[in-house]
């Protein structure tokens, strides 16, 4: 079983009551925040190494590192082979700042996108812009329904029921 499969079984397949789930995810989010604080401070020199080396560097278990890599993978400049992760797999944490911030907002991870390290990476204006873009992208806009006697939206000038709505 790969590290990612082990992580996903642990995080999503294990039966947990509400208290256990709260403790598990609270502990994970705390570790995740610690890793992000460190990598956001060293953005000029991307962190690389094997999964085992990075786990040791950030003082987490390799399976927790796999969970972290799963979460950050979409924000990396070059994605890691997370589906086949093993402890000796070489990985890179070379992330796109804007994409990472945008994805953190999308994940509703306020404990991450509100980190003070963002102050030196992205201007407040840029962060607000990315926040608005992310929120707008997930807003569902319901189109207004065309009724039978309305002008047809195709622009023919006919009533909808006599034009495009004839087959409805």
From TrEMBL:
Name of the protein in its database record: SEC-C motif-containing protein
Protein source organism: [Clostridium] fimetarium
Phylogenetic classification of the source organism: Bacteria, Bacillati, Bacillota, Clostridia, Lachnospirales
């Amino acid at each position: 079983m790969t590290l990612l499969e082990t992580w996903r079984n642990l995080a999503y397949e294990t039966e947990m009551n509400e208290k256990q789930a709260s403790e598990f995810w609270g502990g994970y989010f705390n570790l995740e925040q610690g890793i992000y604080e460190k990598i956001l401070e060293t953005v000029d020199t991307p962190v690389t190494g094997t999964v085992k080396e990075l786990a040791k560097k950030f003082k987490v278990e390799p399976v927790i590192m796999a969970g972290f890599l799963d979460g950050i993978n979409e924000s990396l400049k070059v994605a890691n082979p997370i589906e086949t992760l093993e402890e000796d797999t070489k990985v890179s944490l070379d992330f796109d700042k804007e994409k990472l911030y945008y994805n953190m907002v999308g994940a509703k991870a306020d404990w991450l996108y509100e980190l003070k390290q963002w102050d030196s990476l992205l201007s407040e204006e840029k962060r607000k812009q990315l926040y608005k873009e992310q929120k707008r992208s997930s807003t569902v806009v319901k189109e207004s329904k065309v009724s039978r006697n309305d002008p047809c939206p195709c622009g023919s000038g006919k009533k909808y029921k006599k034009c495009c709505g004839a087959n409805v």
